[in-house]
Structures are given as C-alpha cells and as structure tokens.
C-alpha cells in the first residue's frame, strides 16, 4: 500500500505546482495499483482532468490510509533505491565481462579447430624429445655406474699390488739396488692409486647428480600434450554442435545466454538464493557448451519468473541488512572493474579485440607452427639416431 500513497502524494504536490506533466507520468503507474473504489474514483477524476474532485478525494484517501498504515523509515526506501541502482550497475558489468569471455571462448575454439592438429603434433614432438632426454640421462647414469664399479675393481687390485710390493721392498736390504727398484715401483703404484681415487671421486659426483629436472620436464610435456588433446576434443565437439545450428540460432543462443547470465549470477541475487543461482548458472553454461538453445530458453524463462524479482533490493526491508548488501555490491563492482582492467591488458584480449583479418592471422600462424614442427622433427630424428648409435 505504500506505493499508492507515495504516488498520490507526488500527484497532490504536482496539482499544487500546477504541473500536469508529473501527473501524467504517475497516472499509468497508479492505475496499475488500484485496490479499492476510492482509488478507482481518483484515477477516473485525474483522467478526466477533474483536478478539484481528484484533490479532495486524494486528501481524504491519504488521511484515511495514514491512520492505518504503519510508518516506514524513508532511509529504507532510499537504501532500496540505491541498492537497485547498484545492482543494475553490477548487472551491466557482469554482462560486459560475459560478452568478453564469450568472445575469447569463441576465438579459442576457432584457434583449436584451425590450428589444433598442428599444435598437437608440436606438443607430441616436444613430449618425445623430453622422454628422449630422460632416457639419455638414465643411460649416462648407467654408464657412469658401470665405470665406477670398474674403477672400484681396478683400485682394489692396485691396492693389493701395492701391499705385495711393500712387503717385497721391506724384505730387501735397505741399500741394495733391488730395494731402490722396489721403491720406484711403489711410487708408480701409489701414483696409479691416487689417479684411480681421483677418477672414483669424479664418478661419485656424477652418480649423485640431480636427475629430477629432466623427469619433471618430461612429466610437464606429457601433461601439456594430454591436456591440449582434451581441449581440442572439446572445441571440436562444440564446433560440431554449432555447425548443426543456423546462423540465426547461433546468435540467438549467445544473446539468450548473456541475458540469462545477468539474472542468475550469485553476486546479484539475495543471499538466500545464491546456491540456487549457482546451480542454474552451471546448467546454463552446460547448455551453452552443447549448443542446446531450447534448454537456455527454458532456463531464462525460469529465471524471469523466479529469481529476477527476488533480488536483494526487492526482498530486504531491514535498513541494516540493506546497508550491508550495498557495501557487498559495491565491493563486487570494484572487483569486476579491476578484473576487466586486467583482462584488457592481457595479450589474448588485445589480440582478439584488435584482430581484423582472422584468415590472414591463421595462415601466418600455420606457417610459423609448421616451421616449429619441422625443427622439432629434425631434433627428434637426431635424438633417435644418437640412441641407436
């Protein structure tokens, strides 16, 4: 009942101001809010421009209503209107972000469809090279281990010889020619042992060398290749779905998806509806992924009948909760503005937003990627030759 009261107060002041423009702007709205014969009489008098009768009826009706209608804090109405304006601003920003994400997704799908097979070959070759690098390192580790074991064997034999030579030297007369010759052999054997010890130390350092970086590079190359295969498959699936639709249907799907996205974003609805809004947003995105236009239409209809009139600005009447919600929405707006600013600086967005001739761009990319593939194929061939050798 508060809205008819406010409208009639506006109309009453407009009559006093002799401003029929305000009266005409409020009259259609008041007509939709008629709930009793007195209001119907006022509307009829205003339509007939019988302002004297209308003024008397308005004054009487307002006095009667004020005696039965509880007082409402005007700050509540002001806060609800402020929140409604902020929600609309947030809705516009969400739509702007969704439009850009949609454009990026479409370009990414086109990129994966056009260049995906070539890029997949490049990633497969990189994976092959990374696997070959690990095999080379493992083979080198086995070779070093074998060399270390041989060095240990030679060192053990050299020590045994040194013991034998020492015993022989100790059994000879100190100043004999045989003792001098034995000391010479002892010195040579000691030098050999020192050389073997130095070689063993160097081989030990090689055995303890960290091999994890090569394995990590191999695992990352495998993961990147497998992940790209999945992305390419999904993109081709979406492209296939789109090809089954007409151009008008594709435009309709994008338009309805954006319209529905503005209605079920969890940041827009009242807190009690966030889980439901999130669920509907998931359904909406899934329908978009599979190109299901009828499903998106159905979701939009449900949103328009359910969530749209249940925004916080329509549900809340507590001043404290309204002010709290206003603060939350302002924070969301600030966050979205920052997100959009960051997006504009990203290389992918700058490319998509500035790209004029896409066909020329893709031909250039095909040429560049083809050269990369050729280089990698040569590297793989050389790596396979080295393994055989």
TrEMBL record:
Keywords of this entry: Chaperone, Coiled coil
Record's compositionally biased regions (Basic and acidic residues): 204-225
Region Disordered: start-end pairs: 204-229
Identification of the protein by name: DNA repair protein
Keyword Coiled coil set for record: yes
InterPro entries: J_dom_sf
Coiled coil: 76-142, 319-346
Keyword Chaperone: yes
Taxonomic path: Bacteria, Pseudomonadati, Pseudomonadota, Gammaproteobacteria, Enterobacterales
């Amino acid at each position: 009942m508060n809205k008819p009261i406010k409208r009639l107060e506006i109309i009453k002041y407009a009559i006093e101001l002799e401003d029929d423009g305000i009266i005409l702007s409020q009259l259609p709205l008041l007509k939709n809010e008629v709930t009793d014969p007195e209001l119907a009489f006022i509307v009829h008098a205003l339509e007939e421009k019988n302002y004297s009768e209308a003024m008397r009826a308005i004054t009487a009706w307002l006095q009667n209503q004020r005696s039965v209608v509880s007082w409402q804090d005007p700050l509540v109405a002001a806060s609800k209107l402020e929140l409604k304006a902020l929600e609309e601003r947030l809705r516009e920003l969400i739509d702007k972000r969704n439009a850009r994400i949609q454009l990026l997704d479409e370009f990414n799908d086109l990129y994966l469809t056009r260049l995906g097979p070539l890029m997949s070959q490049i990633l497969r070759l990189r994976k092959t090279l990374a696997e070959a690098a690990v095999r080379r390192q493992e083979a080198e580790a086995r070779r070093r281990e074998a060399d270390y074991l041989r060095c240990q064997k030679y060192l053990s034999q050299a020590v045994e010889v040194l013991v034998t030579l020492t015993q022989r030297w100790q059994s000879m007369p100190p100043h004999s020619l045989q003792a001098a010759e034995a000391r010479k052999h002892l010195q040579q054997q000691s030098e050999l042992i020192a050389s073997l010890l130095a070689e063993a130390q160097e081989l030990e350092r090689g055995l303890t060398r960290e091999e994890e970086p090569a394995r990590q590079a191999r695992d990352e190359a495998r993961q990147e290749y497998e992940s790209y295969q999945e992305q390419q498959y999904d993109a081709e699936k979406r492209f296939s779905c789109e090809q089954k639709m007409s151009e008008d249907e594709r435009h309709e799907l994008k338009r309805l998806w954006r319209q529905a996205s503005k209605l079920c974003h969890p940041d827009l609805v009242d807190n009690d509806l966030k889980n439901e809004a999130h669920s509907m947003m998931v359904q909406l995105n899934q329908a978009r992924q599979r190109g299901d236009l009828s499903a998106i239409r159905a979701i939009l209809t449900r949103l328009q009948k359910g969530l749209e009139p249940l925004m916080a600005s329509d549900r809340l009447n507590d001043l404290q909760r309204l002010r709290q919600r206003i603060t939350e929405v302002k924070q969301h707006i600030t966050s979205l503005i920052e997100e959009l600013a960051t997006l504009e600086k990203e290389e992918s967005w700058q490319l998509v937003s500035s790209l004029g001739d896409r066909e020329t761009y893709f031909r250039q990319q095909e040429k560049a990627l083809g050269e990369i593939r050729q280089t990698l194929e040569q590297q793989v061939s050389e790596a396979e030759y080295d393994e055989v050798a």
